Amino acid sequence: MAQHAYSRRLPSGRVIHTTRPRDMRYAHIVGWGMEAPSQVLTNADLEAIVDTNDEWIMARTGIKERRIAEQRETTTSLATRAAQNALDIADILPSDLDLIIVATATPEYIFPSTASMVQDYLGAKKAGAFDLSAACSGFVYGLQMAAGQIQTGVINTALVIGAETLSRVLDWSDRGTCILFGDGAGAAVLQGSDKPGGVLSSVLRSDGSGWDMLTLPTVSSRDTYLQDGEHEMHRIYMDGKGVYRFATRIIGDSIKQALQQIGLEPADLSLVIPHQANQRIMDYVSKTLKIAPEKVYSNVANYGNTSAASIPLALAEAVEAGRVRPGDLIAMVGFGGGLTWAATIIEWSALPTRSTLSVNWGRRQGEYALAGVRRPLKRWWRRLMLLSPTTWIVTARRILTRRRLRKAQNEPGQDQ
Ligand code: COA
Hints:
The protein is of the alpha+beta class. It folds into two domains: 26-356, Peroxisomal Thiolase, Chain A, domain 1 (3-Layer(aba) Sandwich); 361-407, no CATH class. It contains twelve helices and 15 strands. The strands form five sheets. It has a five-stranded mixed beta sheet with strand order 3-9-8-6-7, sandwiched between helices. A four-stranded mixed beta sheet has the order 10-15-14-13, sandwiched between helices. α3 (75-90) crosses α4 and α7 packs parallel to α8. It is globular, with a radius of gyration of 25 Å. The termini are far apart. Coenzyme A binds at residues 52, 56, 60-61, 136, 175-176, 179, 238, 240-241, 243-244, 247, 277-278, 281, 305, 336.
């Protein structure tokens, strides 16, 4: 890509020299992957937990079953597996990544970010990493953030992940929420190119006045420090009807707005991948946009609502099922807590080919293995280096004092 040099003298007299791309680049999705826990929880299983039944859940939500993480599975492990699958498809190395964004509402830690942990597990040595909090809109927000960095030439390759272990923050006695959600992860690799296409337009919005309609209180929330805090810590609370009204209002309109930005119509779309919250909400996409229901991808029956993971998980399945082909225009739309919502239009360019037998496959495995070895070594090295001369002296003194005391205790006549 053509670059142009740019220099400017600061008031201090120093001169900044930098380069900027002359033209905008295009950000294409070149890899996709998903990971779903193997443990399945059916509607019949839920009947034993809360007062509900399969007919009610199917009629009101379209959900048949959802996946539940086992004890050893975490948001980070699901995210890492989804990322590895996406890197296989893109056939690039972890060390090629410049940026990792993880959209999640269920991180293992508030800090470090899940993204930093994924970066370490992958061995993505030169990648920046951060988590993004926009609830179920998080993946589309992340996609737009990464695409913007690529389009302006700041970076070339980014990994955007949506990953959740919502089963750990559900109130399993609340039938209004525990039947809806599931666990999983999905990932997409974006890469810069001069070939037109990729992420074409996006609409990111928020209406924080509805913050209390969908919450997951954590440290420092008003639910913690107010005596009359209404909701339990680390448990999802939802005003189902309110969220339903909000979602059906914005789901089609936000896609229309994203299309308008580039002069396109709903009829130009080959496929819409909405956030998989509820089949009834997704049905509004075809109603509002006046497109065939078959053009709206749905796998909510099998996974339930996996929040930030739902769109990349559906994208990975849709591409592998041959529902997305090069040249297709696809829309993705997310909505959820915040309230937030986001829509994006993508001109698809990649073929669904898996290149596990490539030379890069072996190099990827090598980088994963190296990351596993490097991790404990770096930790030990860091511990050693952190011990300052003062710490060494204090530790040595402590050892000597302890020895002296032990010796004194063992000397005859000490116990008199
Ligand atoms: N099983 C059986 N009955 C249930 C039930 C369940 N799991 N959950 C609620 N009910 C009952 C209610 O108690 C109520 O009974 P009542 O009429 O005797 O009082 C009745 O079913 C209707 O409840 P209501 O809450 O009005 O149902 P609804 O049609 O609004 O459906 C949701 C509830 C949650 C499925 C729906 O509001 C919804 O999908 N909202 C959006 C949720 C969402 O997508 N959130 C994530 C956004 S990211």
